[in-house]
Amino acid sequence: MPVKPPRPPSPPLTALRSFEAAARLNGFTRAADELCVTPGAIAQQVKQLEQWAGAPLFERQAQGVVLTEAGGMVLPAMTQAFDQIGEAVRQLRQATSPNRIQLAALPSVAQLWLSPRLPALRTAMPDLVLSVTAMETPPNLGREPFDLSLFFMEEGGAAIAQDVLFPVCSPDLAAKVDSIDDLNVLPCLHDATWAEDWGLWLSSFGADHITPRGPVHSLYALAVDDALNGAGILMGHGPLVARHLQSGALVAPFTYRLSRPAHLGIETRAGILPAPLKELVDLLSGKSRL
């Protein structure tokens, strides 16, 4: 009579992934952001893994968590294992759907920079199936199912354009601007994500006495639309308003421009890029003409 004894239970993959992310990113909150769950869910998964292991993997402190000796010992192997899984998934996608590309982008970049270029991309690459996901923070390309990302970054990536700040508005509103002091009385549009933009530009210009007031939008693209409609003066990010400046729909009432340390850039996975992905990167970066 065959004997089929129960096997020792293995820890759930979700618990292993939660521990690895928390250990690599030095905290439950950052791990939760990467894995799109709550910090409480990460804590619960880590606790489950610690119960399976029979030992703590983190020391809980008032300022956060710190890896125990045991946790530190297993982290390198755990990270390598999940990196290999990510690479295996990427190879599977390339083998089965070579022309399907997943792109992640900052919402404002997706709406104002990428979207106008999509028709030309489809013409240049008719077999391309490009899916775009707008998100506030860059994804981990080694783990998440994205092939490339478009974000403002201070280092890394292939630079597309330098980020430059300067006020923009409709031509009709620009006609009412005679000096920097007019910013104290004319409506100024604000973006919640880049709330410091006005202060940075004014301070660099030497106009700290100006207090710009006006609507605050949570989406930069909505603020740009408001500027196009003449509702106020917006602090423009060069790469995002260039198209409207070229068409004349927006103008710059002041000549001074503040160069920022960040640039709009493309990031891809490390290694040799598949032909369709390389072609797309070349088109987006300007190495090939759209």
TrEMBL record:
Gene3D superfamilies: Periplasmic binding protein-like II, Winged helix-like DNA-binding domain superfamily/Winged helix DNA-binding domain. Residues 11-68 form the HTH lysR-type domain. Belongs to the LysR transcriptional regulatory family. Pfam families: HTH_1 (PF00126), LysR_substrate (PF03466). One of its GO terms (biological process) is DNA-templated transcription. The keyword DNA-binding applies. This is Transcriptional regulator, LysR family. Keywords: DNA-binding, Transcription, Transcription regulation. GO terms for molecular function: DNA-binding transcription factor activity; sequence-specific DNA binding.
